[in-house]
From TrEMBL:
Stated name of the protein: histidine kinase
Organism, as annotated: Rhodocytophaga rosea
Keywords: Coiled coil, Membrane, Phosphoprotein, Transmembrane, Transmembrane helix
Spans traversing the lipid bilayer: 233-253
EC number of the protein: 2.7.13.3
CDD domains, alphabetized: HATPase, HisKA
């Protein structure tokens, strides 16, 4: 049954793994199943709102037990059922509970006769034997009842005799000749009414089916509703002949007038048509040429306009980016150069060796900063203009080489590098561009360590499969604030004015990954650390 127990019983068919549904529509006693239990023979016992139902899944036969069978009531409570170790079944309802052994209940004897109880027209009993009465003999002795078309609303009452449990019997009926000739489940109702039936011959059939199968011979009653005289066959013939004659007279009269008018107009139409055809042909030819030229001009104009707009926007964007790039590059180069020039001037005036050593260290630091900035500029330039160079990537060797380059950076020795490689499939890509990506990410991890943390680490996990490589770079550095995370991939973006970075590192990383048709995802929390998740497609060797 379904979750709410309101849509009948569903039986799984083993042969094709489909469900067969038993509802009131196909003769089942009730759509509402509140409780269900299975006895030792695999027979299902159902607590419904019409009483208790015994259902055999093998034969698909069912039997309804009502008040006369000792059921506590017609309504059973939801999920109030169970089977005891003795094989007895327990069901609870609104008026108590039933405890019984399935083998102690006898099958119903359904071999009972059906009789007609009453026949009514417009809810009034039909008298027997009176003049013009449809019943000239007793109802159970009549095989056919003939009704006038004005008597098209009638009711038939029936019953099964000598049945010890009348509330458990189920009835089915149908009316042959009606729009729907299928069997209708009446439940325990013993009366059916038909209204405004069209005149014709009908056969009413009724049977009992307490377990969903026909148990006794069907009882039939033929009902003939006669049409009014104007719907009889001879009246229709007369009407048809009269209408045909009138239409024929009108038709030929109209044809004669139309022929006369057509002869007058035909000549005029022919002459005028020839003139119009000639003029129309010329106009169509000219219009076609004009339309083609117009569409071609419009298409060219739209295409040129779109090209101009795109080119203008591209040029404007390029000029803006170039102006910004030149300004930022010149500013970032000029700052360390100015610092070096100033320190050189101080060295020329300074005599103290200790102070001279300090100035030289400061110059060295500025030169390294300038060198890193120049490297970033070169990486940016090469990424945009150098073609792709595919080769099989040795990730372990690549990571080791990058690590070796950065080992002498300030605070690099206190950063522990953890490496994990899961190479399930050879990966082909541009090794030079991957080197740029790793160098910038590792360099950031060194620069932005949390110096208050006792153990700083950088964890690199690389995993490959047939389609892509997944690279996860995670550190426990100072992290990136939420409002800054959308900007860190912008060109020349620095988290603060005090930052020593060029502002190009993560921008170059993003541009390089996009050049490789990959993606990068940032996860960071201020004071906790940062994680970069990179996915790069496998680019196997092929002819360019």
């Amino acid at each position: 049954m379904d979750r709410d127990g309101r849509r009948g019983l569903k039986l799984l068919q083993k042969k094709d793994s489909t469900f067969k549904t038993f509802t009131i529509a196909n003769g089942f006693p009730s759509n509402t199943i509140n409780a269900i239990a299975e006895d030792n023979k695999g027979v299902l016992w159902l607590g419904t709102n019409q009483g208790m139902v015994r259902f055999d899944p093998e034969t698909e036969r069912y039997q309804l037990f009502g008040m006369s069978a000792g059921v506590q009531g017609l309504q059973f409570n939801r999920q109030a059922s169970g089977r005891l170790a003795s094989g007895e079944l327990l069901f609870g309802g609104n008026n108590g509970f039933n405890l019984f052994h399935p083998d102690s209940l006898k099958q119903l004897n359904l071999q009972v006769p059906l009789v007609w109880v009453d026949f009514q027209i417009f809810n009034k009993p039909v008298p027997i034997g009176r003049e013009n009465s449809p019943l000239q003999a007793r109802l159970n002795q009549s095989q056919t009842i003939t009704l006038d078309y004005k008597q098209s609303v009638f009711s038939i009452e029936y019953a099964a005799l000598n049945y010890t449990a009348p509330e458990e019997i189920q009835y089915k009926y149908r009316l042959k000749g009606f729009t729907d000739e299928s069997w209708q489940n009446a439940g325990a109702t013993r009366k059916v009414t038909y209204t405004n039936l069209p005149p014709k011959r009908y056969v009413f059939e009724v049977t009992t089916a307490a377990d969903g199968r026909v148990a006794v011979p069907t009882r039939t009653l033929t009902i003939v509703i006669t049409p009014p005289w104007w719907h009889t066959w001879w009246a229709r013939i007369v009407f048809l002949l009269s209408a045909t004659s009138l239409l024929t007279i009108l038709y030929y009269s109209r044809v004669r007038r139309i022929k006369y008018q057509n002869k007058r107009l035909e000549k005029q139409v022919t002459e005028r048509t020839l003139q119009l055809q000639k003029a129309n042909a010329s106009l169509q030819e000219m219009n076609g040429l004009i339309q083609e030229q117009k569409e071609e001009i419009q298409s060219q104009a739209q295409e040129l306009e779109a090209r101009v707009e795109i080119r203008t926007a591209d040029l404007k964007k390029t000029n803006e980016e170039l102006d910004n790039f030149v300004y930022r590059v010149s500013h970032d180069i000029r700052a360390p150069l100015s610092s070096i020039l100033g320190l050189v001037t101080l060295i020329e005036l300074e005599q103290d060796p200790t102070q001279l050593q300090l100035y030289l260290q400061m110059i060295n630091k500025s030169i390294h900063k300038l060198d890193g900035f120049v490297k970033d500029i070169l990486d940016y330039s090469r990424n945009s203009r150098v073609s792709m160079n595919r080769e099989e990537i040795n990730f372990q060797e690549l990571v080791e080489n990058v690590h070796a380059e950065l080992v002498y950076m300030e605070n690099a020795p206190r950063l522990q590098i953890l490496k994990e490689f899961t190479i399930n499939y050879p990966h082909f890509n541009d090794a030079r561009r991957l080197h740029i990506i790793f160098r910038n990410l590792f360099s950031n991890a060194v620069k932005y360590q949390n110096l208050h943390c006792e153990r700083s680490f950088l964890h690199i996990h690389i995993q490959t499969d047939k389609h892509c490589a997944t690279i996860i770079v995670k550190d426990n550095g100072i992290g990136i604030d939420t409002w800054q995370q959308e900007k860190v991939f912008d060109m020349f973006y620095r988290g603060s004015q005090l930052s020593n970075s060029s502002g190009l590192g993560l921008y170059i990383v993003k541009e390089t990954i996009e050049k490789l048709n990959g993606s990068i995802q940032l996860q960071s929390e201020l004071g906790v650390g940062t994680t970069f998740i990179i996915k790069l497609p496998n680019l196997p060797l092929k002819e360019e």
